[in-house]
């Protein structure tokens, strides 16, 4: 079974694409993967940022209160 791609409601068999079209398809796949990696990295960094902000908040509140305040 040959691989196919779909463009605007039409399917094309990859093996029959020109060399230039195959090269462009490779670049499209690379860009798609990198974009998803970037989205995943953004989510990871946002979660880390939120965690650091919460830790800082707890540290500031603890130093003002004189004892560790921890929410569970």
* Low-pLDDT sequence parts: none
Order of strands, main sheet, comes to 1-2
Distance between the termini: 54 Å
- How many helical stretches? 1
Please report which band the strand proportion falls in: under 5%, 5-15%, 15-25%, 25-35%, 35-45% or over 45%.
Answer: 5-15%
Radius of gyration: 24 Å
List SSEs in N-to-C order: EEH
Helix content: 55-70%
Query: What coarse outline follows from CA principal-axis ratios?
Result: rod-shaped
- Write down the overall mean pLDDT: 91
How many DSSP-defined strands? 2
Biggest sheet: strands, sense, closure? 2 strands, antiparallel
Q: Look at the helices and sheets and give the structural class.
A: mainly alpha
Structure description:
This protein has about 70 residues and is mainly alpha-helical. It is about 65% helix and about 10% strand. The protein is built from one helix and two strands; from the N terminus they run E-E-H. It has one helix at about 20-65; strands at about 5, 10-15. Strands 1-2 form a two-stranded antiparallel ribbon. Strand 1 and strand 2 (about 10-15) form a beta hairpin. The longest helix has about 45 residues, at about 20-65. It is rod-shaped. About 0% of the residues are buried.
Protein topology:
Blueprint (H helix, E strand, L loop, with lengths): L3 E4 L2 E4 L5 H47 L7
Antiparallel strand pairs: 1-2
Short characterization:
This protein is mainly alpha-helical. It is 65% helix and 11% strand.
Task: For the structure shown, list the relevant keywords.
single chain; 72 residues; mainly alpha; two-stranded antiparallel ribbon; 1 helix; 2 strands
